[in-house]
Amino acid sequence: MRKFDCHSSVYKQTVLTGNMSRAAAFAFIGLLAAGILPGSGVKAAAAPTLTVRSAGGIAHIMPTVAGAEALRAAILKQSAAATLLYHGGPVIQPGPTIFEIFWIPPHLQTGAPTGVSAKYKTVLENYASNLPAHGLLNIVTQYFQNSTSPKYIQNAGRLARVFTDTSAYPASGCSDPATPGNCISDAQIRAEIQKIITANGVTPSINDIFLLFTSSGEGSCFGSSCAYTQFCAYHSFFTGTGGHLVVYGNEPYANTSVCKAPGQTEPNGDVGDLSASVASHEVTEATTDPELNAWFDSSGNEIGDLCNFVFGTNTWTGPSAAANQMWNGFFFELQQEYDNNSAACESAGPQ
Description:
351 residues; alpha+beta
């Protein structure tokens, strides 16, 4: 299996540049290292701040493709390979129990129609139900809690339940530049998750992850960070009814203009494929850093950030396009995750 070290020529040529020629690849890398966006002649944006705060709490965002490129440019300037460090907080044990919530009303706040693609829910349900026991999740088994008596994450978990809510979105609680008039705040996201938890008699724990998927055209913001401008998704936590901790991910609808990397495939011919990779990013990060005080590097990057929009080699032929994962007959192209042992991005591990 090809490995991608953050400072090796293989990483720099293959991870950052995909299928470019060798000469074009190194020219591309030179521009990134100089802080210039290839093809534009202008300085790239500064690497985004991934851990963001608001009056309601703290979250860790998955940046857009442009933000991920700026982050990789910053990583290239580091003198040593990245290492995820343990900061003393809990991890999910033994593995993630996933709840998927699809909030799909017929209309947006502006009255415009909304919905999801034909296979959207199916692809995301297939991802979550087949993730445990496969190699991608196995990467997290090298991470633990409690330094004095380590308790390691296991390649375990399950998709517990799937909920669909067709009730109307509340009046916009924020202003997302990418979706004028249609925006739900983090407080509104938490309220929706708590509503589903309460209505269905679920008792959450730190070992559960609630993924909230919203429909086309609906934006969201966490403080001043907003969907499709700063992030493609984020994970966070809050104390819910009865004092139960709720770990969750905000999963805006797939946006092909800012949350799809050049060359990224849709193995099932549906934008749900893009959201599956985003969900995988958030599930893996929430598993290793549910309260944002466990595993991240000295710059605040979590396990998914160091490999954001990095897919490695697609070795499978899916129904509609190439894939890098095949689980029980279901095909996905999922971003790789960071393996401390190999100091590289991997599709399975630890290596």
